[in-house]
Amino acid sequence: MRIGINVVWFKRDLRVTDHLPFTEAALGGPVLPVYIVEPIYWHLPDTSARQWAFTAECLRDLQDTLRELGLPLIIRTGDVVSNFSDLHERFGIKRLLSHEETGNAWTVERDIRVAQWSMENNVAWTQYPQFGVVRGLKRRDGWAAKWESSMVSQTIMPPTEFAMVPELTSEPIPTGDMLGLKSDPCPNRQRGGRVEGLRVLRDFLHTRGGAYHREMSSPNSAFDGCSRLSPYLTYGALSMREVVQATRHRAGEVRQKNRDGPGTWGPALRAFSARLHWHCHFIQKLEDEPRFEYSNVHRGFNDMRDEKDVDAEKLRAWTTGHTGYPFIDACMRALNQTGWLNFRMRAMLTSFASYQLWLHWRETGLCLARKFTDYEPGIHWNQVQMQSGTTGINTVRIYNPVKQSHDQDAGGQFIRQWVPELQTINDEFIHEPWTMTHMEQKMARCVIGEDYPERVVDHMAAARFARTTIYTRRKSKGFRDEAKQIHHKHGSRKKGSQKTSARQKDKGCVLKIS
C-alpha cells in the first residue's frame, strides 16, 4: 500500500541525537530509518574490513537506540537506487532526508544518481549540512563565521513520538566475510557505537586530556593523551557540534576552577578546540574541489612522481613495517594493529614514503586510508598531499626518521614495543641499529639483514634528491601564480596566514628538515 513515507537515509551519521534529517522526518508523517550496505563501496581501494567492522558496531548501537524509540532500522544490502525504487514502489516515498556527505569520488557519483532518481520519481530529497562544511561555498572569506554559527546552534534532541509505518523486515547486518571483504585483522581497534563514543568523550574531557597539548606528538603518550574521537566523528556516532559544545563547557569549568592559578587543562582544551575547527577546514577543501582525492593540488607537480610505476618492494617494506628504520617500522606496525596513529606520526609515515622512498602519494594514500579506522576523505587526502609537498602553498616538511626517533621515542620504548626484533638492542643503537659493528649485532642477537632488514634507502641522500627536485619545481615559470590562486580559494583565513603566504612567495619555497 502506497501510504507516503519519509525515508531517513543514514550514511556516515549513525546517531539520532543532533540529527536534523531524523527530527524533520518525524514532523511530517510516517518515518522509515534506512541504512543501505553498498558492497561496491566496501570493495573500493580506500575502504577496508576494519572500517566496516567499526561501522557495523555503530549500526548495532543505532538499532538499539531506535528500538527504544519504537522504530526499526531497516538494513538493506545492494545498490542504493535499486533499494529506494523498491521502497517507493511498495510504500510511496514522499520525502527522502539525509545529511550531505563529503566522501570520496564514488560517493559523489552515487549521490548524483540518487538525485537523478529523486527528480525522475518526484521524490523530494532534502540534504542537511553535516559538520561545519558549507555546500556550494562561493568564497572562503567568512567561512569561519559560518562554522562558528553552526557550532553554537542548539543541539537537536531526537523526537519521542512517531507516526508508524507498515511492518517491514530488516536484513541482518552483514559480516565482513558475508561482504567478501579481504581479511584485515586489527586486534586493538577501537570499538564503534555512540555509547562507546560518549564514554571516550567523557574520559578525554575529564581524565585523559589534561596534557593533550604536550602528549599529542609522541606515540608513547598519544594513544592515551589524544582524544581518540576521530572515528566517532567520521561515522557520525557523535556530531561535531556536541563535541565542540562539550569541550567549551568543560573549558568553562576549568576556567572557574583555576581562577586562583594556572593549570594544564586550559591550554590542553584550547589546543583541542583548534583541532576541531581544523577538522572541518580540511573537509571543506575536498567539498569545494573533489579532484584533490586523485590529482595534484598544484599542477606544477604533475609527472614529478610516476603514479603508475610504483616500486613494489619499497611499498611492501613500508606497508608492513620492514624498512630498516626502527621508528618508521614501529609506527606502521602500531597502525596495522590498532587502526590509529597520532597526527605527527601519520605525517612522518607519509613524508618518508613520498620523499625518502619517492613513492606517489596516491598509492601510499590508499594504503593508509585502508589502515585508518577513522579514514575521513576530506582530511586524509589534503593531509597526504600536504605531507607529500604537492599543494604548492604549504611548507614542505621532510621528516628525518632518525631525528624523529630520537625526539619522540628517546628511550626506544615505542620501538621495542612494536618491533620485537630490536628488544635486545641498547639505547645507543636502538634508533640506528645499522651503525653497530657485526660483532655488536651478533652479541645483541640482531644481525642486520637477517633478524632485522637492512635500510631500504639512505634517508639523507634520498632527502637531498627530494629537496632539490621539489625546489626546482617550485621555481618553475608560472608556479607562483597558480599557488596564489590555490591559496585564495583554499587557504586559511586565520590571522597571520597572509603573512606566511608572503614569506613563501618571497623565498619561492620553504623547506624544513624535521
Short description:
The chain is of the alpha/beta class and 514 residues long. Helix content is 50%, strand content 7%. The strands form two sheets. A five-stranded parallel β-sheet has the order 3-2-1-4-5, with helices on both faces. It has a two-stranded parallel ribbon with strand order 6-7.
Number of discrete helical segments? 23
Low-pLDDT regions: 496-509
* Helical fraction: 40-55%
Order of helices and strands: EHEHHEHEHEHHHHHHHHHHHHEHHHHHHE
Quote the beta fraction: 5-15%
What distance lies between the first and last C-alpha atoms, to the nearest angstrom? 66 Å
Shape: globular
Structural class category: alpha/beta
Q: Gyration radius, to the nearest Å? A: 24 Å
Please report the total strand number as a whole number.
7
Topology overview:
Layout: E1 5-10, H1 20-26, E2 31-37, H2 39-42, H3 49-68, E3 74-77, H4 80-91, E4 93-99, H5 105-120, E5 124-128, H6 143-152, H7 194-206, H8 212-215, H9 219-225, H10 230-234, H11 240-257, H12 265-288, H13 312-320, H14 326-338, H15 343-356, H16 361-371, H17 377-388, E6 396-398, H18 401-408, H19 413-418, H20 438-443, H21 459-474, H22 479-490, H23 497-507, E7 511-513
Parallel strand pairs: 1-2, 1-4, 2-3, 4-5, 6-7
Helix pairs in contact: 11-12, 12-17, 15-17, 16-17
Could you characterize the architecture of this molecule?
The chain is of the alpha/beta class and 514 residues long. Helix content is 50%, strand content 7%. Strands 3-2-1-4-5 form a 5-stranded parallel sheet, sandwiched between helices. Strands 6-7 form a two-stranded parallel ribbon. The protein is globular and about 80 Å long. Mean pLDDT is 93; it is low at 496-509.
